[in-house]
Design brief:
Helix 4 (108-129) packs across helix 11. The protein starts with a helix and ends with a helix. The chain is built from 11 helices and 7 strands. By secondary structure, it is of the alpha/beta class. 46% of the residues lie in helices and 12% in strands. It has a 5-stranded mixed beta sheet, sandwiched between helices. It has helices spanning 3-16, 29-50, 68-81, 108-129, 163-187, 211-214, 219-223, 233-236, 238-245, 272-285, 294-303; strands spanning 21-26, 57-62, 87-90, 135-140, 193-199, 255-258, 261-263. The chain is globular.
């Protein structure tokens, strides 16, 4: 559980030669506590043989991307308790979920995989900007983005929904968000934050848990037949870790990665006009002005009530 966090934690410590602090923003607090205990136990065993430095910290913050109000509550907590935020990894996601709207009125893939990360990033952006040089924001996308479309007139896909359409649209949105955020950061003169999107690979996790509900009983079992071909969580974490801490990656921004190297995403993912339109639409969906600069937007959104 949470093997990529353990890997990031170890790599961060080995590079910085000092204790790290990693915050697990999770929906299920009990599972998060189990993960923290598991990570501490495993890291302690490794430390006995390889690390001389003092263990850092692992903290838990409740975050439910299904709720815009909860996202703001989580962000407010982090802004209050954390003196710095150097790395933000937007990793949460759902896969092939049956059609359902969140209580905020958005299709579940769209809000959990994309719009929730969009909001959280904007809320935390002022703190990240204040945290010094070398800060990074990583948005986990998927190779599936190549099969996605952005239907600005029907982002909830109410007239043409399928689980795969919902998932692919959300992952394409993550790449477009990354590219537009990079453009707006540079336009605002913010040079100390780099942004990345990536495909982690096909990883053996609990992500397919909705297959039976979306398709037919036994679909998840059938999908497990490809498990031997899938990456382990540790392997699937490597590109995320690369974007988060690699020195060479620190010289790049706004790019898309697969297997720890820059690759070209789909043509749609490279469309600057579509990226800008999605940004504006996302702001409007959150009740925000879409025609102001990034710094002004961050100030406004930090004080806005999300109901």
């Amino acid at each position: 559980m949470f093997n990529w966090i353990e890997s990031l934690y170890l790599n961060q410590q080995s590079i910085n030669k000092s204790s790290g602090r990693v915050i697990l923003a999770c929906r299920d607090i009990n599972k998060a506590k189990e993960a923290v205990n598991d990570i501490k136990e495993n890291v302690s065993k490794i430390q006995e043989n390889n690390l001389e430095d003092e263990l850092g910290e692992l903290e838990i913050c409740q975050l439910n991307l299904n709720s815009l109000a909860n996202i703001k509550k989580c962000a407010q907590h982090l802004l209050t308790t954390e003196s710095n935020i150097h790395i933000l990894i937007n990793n949460a996601g759902i896969f092939l979920h049956p059609f359902e709207k969140t209580k905020d009125g958005f299709e579940t893939h769209f809000q959990v995989n994309y719009l929730g990360h969009f909001l959280l990033t904007l809320l935390l952006l002022p703190k990240i900007e204040e945290s010094g040089s070398g800060c990074r924001i990583i948005n986990v996308s998927s190779l599936a983005h190549k099969y996605g479309d952005i239907n600005l007139e029907d982002l909830n896909l109410e007239h043409c929904y399928s689980p795969i359409k919902g998932y692919c649209q959300s992952k394409l949105a993550n790449i477009l968000f990354t590219k537009e955020l990079n453009n707006k950061l540079r336009a605002a003169g913010i040079q100390n934050i780099n942004v990345y999107s990536l495909h982690p690979g096909i990883v053996k996790t609990e992500l397919p848990r909705y297959l039976d509900a979306s398709y037919f009983r036994g679909a998840r079992l059938i999908s497990s037949l490809i498990n031997p071909l899938m990456k382990t969580p540790e392997q699937g974490a490597q590109t995320t870790i690369y974007c988060a801490i690699d020195e060479n990656a620190g010289k790049e921004s706004g790019l898309y990665y697969d297997n720890c190297r820059v690759v070209n995403p789909s043509i749609k993912a490279c469309d600057p006009e579509l990226a800008n339109k999605l940004w504006k639409c996302s702001c409007e969906l959150l009740g925000l002005s879409s025609d102001i600069g990034l710094k002004e937007l961050s100030k406004i959104i930090s004080n806005k009530e999300i109901i």
